[in-house]
Amino acid sequence: MKTAKTSTRPTAQLAQEECKALVAKCLADKFSINDTSPNIEMHFEQGRKADASCSIAFQLAAKLKMSPIKISEEIAKQIKKGKLVEKATSLNGFVNFTFTHEYYASALREGCEKNYGCKAEKNTGSETVVIDYSCPNVGKPLHIGHIRSTIYGHSVKNLLMSQGKKTIGFNYLGDSGAQVAKLLLALEEYKDLPEIKTERDLLQYYVKINVEVEKNPALKERERKILEAIESGDAQVQSGLDKVRQLSLTAFKESYKILGVQFDEIQGESNYIEPAKKIVQECIEKKIAFKDKGGELVCELEPQLPNAVLVRSNGTTLYLTRDLALADYKFHKYKFNESIYITANEQNLHFRQVFATLEKLGRSYNNRHVGFGLIKIEGTKLSTREGKVLLLADVIREAQEEAKTQIISRNNDSNIKPIELNKRALAIGLAALKFAVLKVSAEKDINFNFKAMVSFEGDTGTYLQYSLVRCKSILEKAGEESKDEKIESEKMKKIKTVKKYDFNTEEKELLLHISAFPNVTANAAKSLSPHVLCDYLLKTAAAFSKFYSMHSVLDAESEAAKQQRLEMVNATANVMQKGLELLGITALEKM
């Protein structure tokens, strides 16, 4: 369908401004108050009592020495009809607004626009944001716990880009430190284990060595020496490290490809050992670091934060020290306006210390850390060290198989080709997994339950995919009918709102959801909260289902109603498709 030029400001925003202006004028005229900005809340819920409401009466009750109900009644009486506001009423102290026909008509026109809800389609914004996400340790396979940082970071990147930001997806691989030293020690120690060919082999080595190191001081000492060799750039150790890194990165990239996740830059932590040592020297010169009794070099952050160890007593750098060098690298290369780190909330203190140390060094970088909760298996925390993991590759494969079973049981077409079946099943399985993670706010833990995550029922990504498929099916059938009736295809592409046709209750409810899309994407991007978009899409799908179950589209009571409802289906499909894309979920043509 041909789309109109994108509006400068969305209808919902214009309506909110008009509500504020009407209330502000009433406050000035009735109560001589000129310095209060009314708090207008837009309503897009089912069973709503109004299109928008204002709680200003509660804010003014003490000042005016009047009850909120009396104040709201006085305000509602004074408000006249506007371009987008039909009327105002008072209910329990709130000033409620009902919108005009023009609001719904305008929301419908906007909902069909090509770039609706997004300020940009290309990654060319004037403000640059670096997003640091996924960041697995080499030598360890990607497991279900990694999906949260990877998928969350990818969605945040999409959301920020949709709001006109230039985004840099950065993947910082852990290829230094104690965990890598342990793995290299295992390669030396266990000649009886299988030759390393896959990431699963690496996991077997890693789990075994962790058990042995804890009870064998000699192995612990060898681990320490390997760590020092990594820091010094020892050629033999580097050779083993290169092998592990390459094997891991190959496996990582395969998983990223399946997930549909891309990065603009992938760097290894070991690249920042030498730059980190220079920063340590700078800390000494600026007298913000001291050597403690144990021989460690420490940056003084107390009493605000615990002091940060910069160098161990044996002279090796730490994760924190290398993060200081990484921050320098990012800023000097990208001149970012903001740098965002997305990790488990177990690292909350770590990043507070990193940012505080950077401030002491005089680095005025705009850094931000988002900590997220853990993914657990039936209440048990994942641990690679203990071998208590569910590999991401296995999860994806099981999700695909479950989706395949569902497709076959629901599809009357038994002739679906195996290639198409596998492709469709993978898209459905991934949608279920991604949505199950993204719909939960970042700070909360997720208790992993495979059956629940890939369920085709309830609040799932599969349900959203199905809602979009249903919209596309209606539009496709309308196109076929237009050909049967010998109506020019261009006429179907130019479906226009018939202004004389009134919107019924279910249509208004659906259009309120559609009109909310620009505000939702903006708020989700600003707060780095994909779950806000998830919640919106579920409610929009529910509003569409309610509308479609109660009102025929193709067999509407009049041609005017049919054309308008087809446009509503088109607008719904538009926001559902864009919303899924922002979440990194593939939209399908058929289920």
Q: Could you characterize the architecture of this molecule?
A:
The chain has helices at residues 11-31, 56-64, 68-78, 101-111, 146-162, 178-189, 199-215, 217-232, 235-259, 273-285, 319-334, 348-360, 392-410, 418-438, 450-453, 461-484, 489-493, 505-526, 530-550, 559-583, and strands at 40-42, 52-54, 85-91, 94-99, 127-132, 165-173, 265-268, 289-291, 297-299, 308-311, 338-344, 367-372, 375-377, 380-381, 446-448. It has 591 residues and is an alpha/beta fold. It folds into three domains: 11-99, Arginyl tRNA synthetase N-terminal domain (Gyrase A, domain 2); 133-267 and 323-381, Rossmann fold; 393-583, Isoleucyl-tRNA Synthetase, Domain 1. It has a five-stranded parallel sheet with strand order 7-6-5-11-12, with helices on both faces. Helix 4 crosses helix 18 (505-526), helix 7 crosses helix 8 and helix 13 (392-410) crosses helix 14 (418-438).
Helical residue percent? 40-55%
- Tally of extended strands? 15
Name the strands of the widest sheet in spatial order.
7-6-5-11-12
According to CATH, what is the topology of the largest domain?
Rossmann fold
What general outline do the C-alpha atoms trace?
Answer: globular
Number of domains: 3
* Structural class category: alpha/beta
- Biggest sheet character: 5 strands, parallel
Overall CATH class of the largest domain: Alpha Beta
**First-residue to last-residue Cα separation:** 23 Å
Low-confidence stretches: 1-7, 484-499
Average pLDDT number: 87
- Work out the radius of gyration: 29 Å
